[in-house]
Design a protein that fits this description.
The chain is mostly beta strands. It contains 1 helix and 25 strands. It has one domain (2-328): Glycosyl hydrolase domain, family 43 (Tachylectin-2, Chain A). Helix content is 3%, strand content 49%. A hairpin with a 5-residue loop joins β10 and β11 (131-138).
Length: 338
């Protein structure tokens, strides 16, 4: 099945005018640095990569993870139906030669994982050339989440029967999901969305925690990388969705929301890092949000291009309440080498 990229407008998105969120005086230097080095969703024309599987609220195509290998784009993303109608029913693996028009090459269904729902995957390639897919799995009839790992020689050959659990969380105390996985200084780094389960009426709360690994399989958590900010637009929860490691400073994109009622309708913020394990948010407003539907603009992933440009993929709300998957091409700065 092919998904044909189609041009979209920018009129349903709001982006911070400077290319980074507005900030208090103490954050000005950080915002200037971020604005100079980061592509912000909504500041370039978007193209629909995958349409929502339905037109009503709860139908989502998104939560993407992307790779560029030898001129070929690989994209993993989640398809979802509303609660009671299937939730996250599969992860699609697709390929493209232009980053916009993708052909589906595999679907990883939720059933072999024993999961009630699947959420954001992480698609990575090892130094040895193998492909890995980290899969977020929801426990049936529980707020608990865990992460399983699949590994294969090619992304179209992921086999759920070979899965292994790499981030188990704790069914009683902690849900772990939506990992971002990257290589930095010859080690694996991971940023996971973590939900404390100590209060059964507040399991939507979330922070982002950092972990390291020598092999990308056995992980050691180092602490909280990004925490909610009381009294701000991201007071209820934050989720790191992408980390840029090759600029003058570490920069993270993150999803945030102020209340439990905004669950599933997160907006995009920006944070800067002092180390891979510690980020602080900049600005007093989201960097990007949708103006239609539930306002969601979330799960931004950033793909560095050989010419110095960047391609963004993200999930965004539609007027009827569904979410679709879009991409934007951000050309290299004029001073960048060709």
């Amino acid at each position: 099945m092919a998904t044909v990229g189609q041009q979209s407008t920018m009129s349903d998105l709001v982006t911070a005018a400077t290319g980074a969120p507005a900030a208090a005086a103490a954050d000005v230097a950080d915002v200037a640095d971020v604005a100079a080095t980061v592509a912000v969703p909504g500041s370039r024309p978007g193209v629909t990569v995958a349409q929502a599987p339905g037109s009503e609220p709860g139908f989502w195509a998104g939560a993407p993870s992307a790779l560029l290998v030898d001129g070929v784009y690989y994209l993993a993303y989640r398809l979802r139906r509303p609660i009671g109608s299937g939730r996250g029913f599969g992860v699609v693996i697709a390929r493209s030669t232009d980053g916009e028009t993708f052909t589906e090459i595999a679907v990883v269904p939720r059933e072999p994982f024993g999961a009630e729902s699947l959420e954001r995957p992480a698609l990575v390639r090892t130094p040895e050339g193998r492909f890995r897919l980290y899969v977020s799995c929801a426990a049936p009839n529980s707020p608990h989440w865990w992460v399983d790992l699949l590994e294969a020689d090619a992304p179209e050959t992921f086999d759920p029967s070979t899965r292994r659990t790499v981030l188990p969380g704790d069914p009683a105390t902690l849900a772990v999901k939506d990992p971002v996985v990257a290589r930095l200084d010859d080690r694996w780094h991971l940023w996971a969305s973590c939900h404390p389960l100590d209060d059964p009426n507040a399991t939507d709360r979330m922070d982002s925690r950092h972990a390291t690994s020598d092999d990308g399989i056995h992980w050691t958590f180092t602490g909280t990388a990004l925490a909610p900010r009381p009294g701000h637009w991201d007071a209820r929860g934050v989720r790191i969705t992408a980390v840029l490691t090759d600029g003058p400073q570490l920069v993270a994109y993150y999803d945030g929301r102020a209340t439990a009622a905004e669950n599933w309708a997160e907006r995009t913020g920006l944070a800067v890092g002092t180390t891979p394990g510690r980020f602080h948010a900049v600005g007093t407003e989201p960097a990007a949000t949708a103006t239609v539907g539930d306002g969601a603009l979330r799960y931004v992933t950033v793909l560095a291009l050989p010419d110095g440009g960047q391609r963004l993929y993200y999930e965004v709300a539609l007027p009827g309440g569904a979410h679709e998957l879009r991409t934007e091409l951000h050309p290299a700065p004029l001073h960048a080498a060709p």
